[in-house]
Write a structure and sequence with these properties.
The chain has about 150 residues and is of the alpha/beta class. The chain has six helices and five strands, in the order E-H-E-H-E-H-E-H-E-H-H.
């Protein structure tokens, strides 16, 4: 992953402002941000945005993804339907670090109506700063991958 510093961001209409703040935050940290929208506040369907971001990660075009909706739950469910995606909703930095270290998560979901921007940025930093530990966790991630087969 060290060679690929591309990260995809997407959301529904409820999370545009937070997504844009996150995009700026991570671009300032050296990531190449692929923001696939939306850009206007009209109501939109979160499943299509979760799927679109997940496909960019699953294809290898982007190393990681961050997706947002009101609760983070619906968009996460859509993303996890794409083979190869392990996405978790996080409302605290500890969980964000753990889904990377223990679950080898390649996507993070955030609820824009659940947490504020400052906490969201801390969660993003925890997620991006963590690395998969492997070992016994690798066995468990392989078990998750086997479910997809």
């Amino acid at each position: 992953m060290a060679d690929n510093k591309r990260i995809v961001l997407s959301s529904d209409h409820a999370a545009i402002d937070m997504r844009q703040a996150i995009a700026k935050h991570i671009a300032d940290k050296g990531w190449e941000v692929v923001d696939i929208g939306p850009t206007t506040p009209e109501s939109t369907h979160y499943p299509k945005h979760g799927e679109a971001a997940a496909r960019k990660v699953a294809s290898g075009d982007c190393a990681l993804g961050i997706i947002l909706c009101g609760t983070g739950q619906g968009i996460m469910m859509a993303a996890n339907k794409v083979k190869g995606i392990r996405c978790g909703v996080c409302a605290d930095p500890f969980s964000a670090r753990m889904i990377r270290e223990h679950n080898d998560a390649n996507m993070l979901s955030i609820g824009a109506r659940v947490i504020g921007e400052s906490l969201a940025l801390e969660i993003v930093d925890a997620f991006l700063g963590a690395e998969f530990e492997g070992g016994r966790h690798g066995t468990r991630v392989d078990m998750i991958k086997a479910i997809e087969a």
